[in-house]
Known about the structure:
five-stranded antiparallel beta sheet; globular; about 30% helix; alpha+beta; D-Amino Acid Oxidase, Chain A, domain 2; eight-stranded mixed beta sheet; FAD/NAD(P)-binding domain
Amino acid sequence: MFDIVIIGAGIIGTMLARQLSFYHLKTAVVERNSDVADGTTMANSAIVHTGYDPQDGTLKAQLNVQGARMYPSLLQQLHCHHKTTGAFIVACGKKEEEHLSLLMQRADQRGIPYRVLTGQQAIKEEPHLSDQVTKVIDFYTTQVIYPWEVALRCMENAVNNGTKLYLNTEVTRIEKRETGYRVHSHDRFFDTEMVINCAGVNAPLIHDMVDAHRDYEITPRKGEYYVLDHDCTPVSHIVFPVPGPAGKGVLAVPTVYGNTLIGPNALECDGDDVSTTPQGLQAVRKAITKTLKDMPMGHNIRTFAGIRATSNRHDFIIEEVKGAPGFIDAAGIESPGLASAPAIADRIVHQFVEPRLHPSANPQAETTVQPPVIMSELSIEKQNEMIRKNPLYGKIVCRCENVSEQEIIDCIHRPVPATTIRAVKKRVRPGMGRCQGGFCQPSVLRILARELGIAETEVCLNEPGSTVLVRENRL
């Protein structure tokens, strides 16, 4: 019996799990995928937007500003990577400059700092800016983060405080009971007083299990990206076009690890379609030329796509379902959902959980987690000390990202363990570099098999059944 079952272990579900773990509550997080942060959280622009863009009077506007201001403390507590890059919103001509005036008005009302630059001043700071640029607003407090890391640390913190995590557990049915709900999956069920639906693009499917009269629609939108190698740094700021009806447009984003993201476009799609297409990627290349010139696209090392959940309400949906007491939807969480996530979790706890369950605070709950060893970020002296204690910290498995064997072993034995090749990649980055795992993946596979006590032919790339090796060859 649980007090709360959270469906979905993306950035919203994991932040909520962490927040709830500070109370005396029995909480379960149920995730259909094989790892935390495997959906929208895994493929986005990684930006903590400051809150200048959402329309007045929306939850997006309120929670974006609030969430962005909660991040510094959160990132410090969880020892997460972040980088303050600033965000250039660039206008090309008088019409777009008028929209910049609207953004400045919103920023003034919401207490968001910025500075204004002429096109010439901006090009001095960002030489790759297009010659068409006439005016720029720099929201200079804007940060980029590593979204997978934030979600994983939140989940680790929650697990350490007693939260139960169930991966590879797809919800198949929800049964209303006299007091609460019974949440069914393929091989178990969970009795609970409350259910919180954080299922991303699949939120409508979960909602419909308890209510046949849903009054919102979710349209999955796919965004395709390029990843440029970190041997080139074409921009030091995030560079946006003036926002349009389809979103914030195609951007250039310097990441915390030195790569540059170019994208995304916005295409309506099937909810599970994360494929990239020649047409979509060509559209991204064309769109970026409006704001940036001479981009080193030949340094591309990977393309990928992510899905965001766009609702017909054009706002976040955070509410109790009519006729289903204790069933809470957190749906339509598209941009700026990442920036808003801490505030979304806070709102759900204070508006829905506390009035219904009246939980008491748990004074024994931890608010932080032990950070992993990252050898490439240590001084030479500290590296040598670590290697003397454990030589596997000196055995490099991934040369592109300088990842040692012991770092891989460590992530396999964390509170939320890596059990697949992609889970290791998300945590400590072997396979993220120029060769994209061409050299290190066989070693990662062998380490996983050894540490998990399974055959190499049982190691999966990601979801169950995605084994890399079929059988042993006879020599």
